[in-house]
Design brief:
Residues 45-246 form the Clp1 P-loop domain. The radius of gyration is 22 Å and the shape is globular. The protein contains 12 helices and 14 strands. β12 and β13 form a beta hairpin. Helix content is 29%, strand content 19%. The strands form 2 sheets. A 7-stranded mixed beta sheet has the order 4-3-2-5-1-6-7, with helices on both faces. Strands 8-13-12-11-14-9-10 form a 7-stranded mixed beta sheet.
Amino acid sequence: MIGSATAAVMPSPAEIIIPSSWEEAAEAIAFDSTPFPPPLTMVCGAANCGKSTFSRLLLNTLLMRYRRVGYLDADVGQPEFTAPGCISLHIIDKKTPDLSILQMKTPERCIFFGHISCQQDARNHSISVFILYDYFRKEFYQIDDFDNPCKTLVPLIINTSGWVQGTGYDMLVEMLQHMSPSHIVRVCVSSESGNFLNGQCWLKKHQNVPMNLVEICAGTSSYIQPEIMRKEARMIQDLRIVAYFRQCLPGEMSFACHKEFVDNFASIHPCEIPLSRIKFNHVGCQIATDEVSTSLNGSIVGLVVSSSDLSGKTTPWCIGLGIIIAMDYSKDQIHLVTPVPLAILRKVDLLLKGTIDIPICLQKVYKFSSLDEVIQKQHCAQSSGCRSEEFLQKQLFASESSACSSPKNMLSKEQLAD
């Protein structure tokens, strides 16, 4: 156990105090390890124990030594850089000075899981994580890539979910066996039932992998307050969804009150994509043709571009999220709101619906029964003369400048060039 974390209790939503033991652990991983190959670090622990905060601290610390750092986010409930319901891989080259600010970043690759808890589909969650990890190994961690000796290997942080018991424990063991990380960070809580990993019990008999186990104390006391933790988690999930769709509005726009944000959001003109060339699926099942409209209207969907490799295997890469507000069969059009640019949106061939709810503040905007109501609502919002001042500027809508100044998507540079 490295030190203590008594100073890590979050005193206010806007301030995060990092204990010295966490800084020591992050520096040990970043600087005490050999430079080649770079460390592969998995952060494990119960829900609400500080895994994400430590992961971002470790990310900043690694960026002091490496030009780029990979970040595989398997926490679908409270992801760091995307909206909830997504499993994503990021390649990051800039530090995050303020760990309390919600960040929206464009992932290298993203898969739409469709739920805010991995417990809702444990098998597909594991499969998605393995797809992203294998992609990372292929593109950024080829140790024996003699054909490209100048290619620099990238360290990786894997931020896991907080499910550490029962099936969740089995999932973590399976991840450890598949990935064989060089470092495992165990974030310990006061309740022993919330802790994970004792020794090297996860290793298979034939495996002999050098592994460094780093133990730190949890950075919050709310693990023992499950009701408060659930309410906080839902609030943060809603904030992240709103922060994602806030990218549909100009980055310099700010708001004096909640109503002004809603009114400005209602004035956004929806994008239009051809209805006939899009497939529709619920995550885990198909949607009957006669139920598409009633099932999808007013819902959050994953925007997916199917990609096939040389072997013919298709991977449903997610390029972003959208809110379907109307389906016009007479004009063969789907009307949806999304920050994804139209040129990229035209590549979408599949819409996936999960169980992600629209935040209450946006439900007031998108409870429509017809396209006429959409147009009428937009007209009312545009003629209301809403002014734009300060509104939750730091906690709700703060984002890296590139993410706010122009709407981002989840396609890689290679796909953008297609």
